[in-house]
Design goal:
With 311 residues, this protein is mainly α. The protein has 13 helices and no strands. Helix 6 crosses helix 8 and helix 12 packs antiparallel against helix 13. The longest helix is centred in the first third of the chain and has 43 residues.
């Protein structure tokens, strides 16, 4: 009896069962169809991106020069430039990094390494994951009420500091999640080895765990900063200016000064009917893309450097 059962099983898996062959053929067909659809979607997205890049480069390269970068915005498109929005974007970027990196990394380390598995911890984790998907304009409304109105004595209203704090709230969930995933990827055996040698929890995290997780943390942080520097809706909501003919003061006092940014200036030029302003917007988009490309390249170089030093 057992011999007959084993023989029947061998026939089923050897392809002698017609029903099994038909089912296997359908699965391979569905797999092939899904592969074709996935490739088609990828090629379509890349084609649209290539067309957009071609249009931007065609319209903006002729306008892109040193005078365009070092001139202030103007009502005359032939002499308008991006000096003040470019400096404002860099000022925002530096302030966001100073605020969001220690807070996000610290919160991620606490939630992953120190926090106990309680209902409060699970509630916080669920809300952090949900906040990462909240539309950016909601953060703009929150920043308008909290940082522009309630904290006006500190931020001076619609200032660089208010914009940086608003965008920091936007990317904090991303940095926290990235930090936790990077720490979680470190083998638990390293923690146990540190404890076996008599090290405290903080010593194990500082000497063993954090240096190994740092490449992933830095990569996620820089990518989050890239998202923040390209956001427009929160800055419009908190009232960032669309025309500034001066550079914000690059000091602590400058944090309370009015500002504009490259996305705001691009939005302003695109909304104008003159084609010359549209060419200016295309040139500003090229500069913004170069800034984002520089940040992403920095993330890759930092990750490779820390990975090599770890080896």
């Amino acid at each position: 009896m057992s011999f007959r059962n084993s023989q029947s099983t061998d026939q089923n898996y050897s392809g002698e069962n017609p029903d099994f062959d038909v089912s296997l053929s359908k699965r391979y067909t569905f797999d092939k169809v899904f592969e074709i659809l996935a490739w088609s979607a990828t090629l379509f997205a890349l084609s649209v991106l290539a067309i957009l890049l071609f249009n931007v480069l065609t319209d903006g390269l002729a306008r892109l020069n040193w005078s365009f970068i070092t001139s202030y915005p103007s009502r005359r498109p032939d002499i308008a430039g991006i000096l003040s929005p470019l400096v404002g974007s860099i000022w925002l970027l530096v302030t966001i990094a100073i605020v969001s990196f220690p807070l996000g990394v610290g919160a991620g380390i606490y939630l992953e390494e120190y926090a106990k598995d309680t209902w409060l911890t699970r509630f916080v984790e669920i809300n952090i994951a949900n906040l990462a998907a909240v539309p950016s304009i909601i953060y703009g409304l929150l920043g308008l009420q909290v940082f522009v109105r309630w904290m006006a004595p500190l931020t001076n209203g619609r200032s660089v500091l208010a914009g940086a704090l608003t965008l920091s709230l936007l990317i904090l969930p991303i940095i926290i999640i990235t930090t936790r995933e990077s720490l979680r990827a470190v083998p638990d055996s390293l923690r146990q080895a540190g404890y076996a040698l008599g090290a405290t929890k903080w010593q194990v995290i500082r000497v063993q765990i954090f240096p190994i997780a740092l490449p992933g943390i830095l990569t996620g942080t820089i990518l989050a900063l890239s998202r923040a520097i390209g956001e427009t809706a929160p800055l419009i909501t908190i009232g960032a200016l669309t025309f500034i003919a001066f550079v914000p003061d690059l000091s602590l006092k400058g944090l309370q000064s009015p500002f504009t940014a490259l996305p705001i200036q691009i939005y302003n030029w695109v909304s104008r009917p003159q084609p010359e302003f549209h060419n200016n917007a295309a040139a500003a988009i090229i500069v913004l893309m170069l800034l984002l490309l520089l940040m992403n390249t920095s993330a890759i170089l930092l990750r490779n450097k820390f990975q090599q030093s770890r080896r």
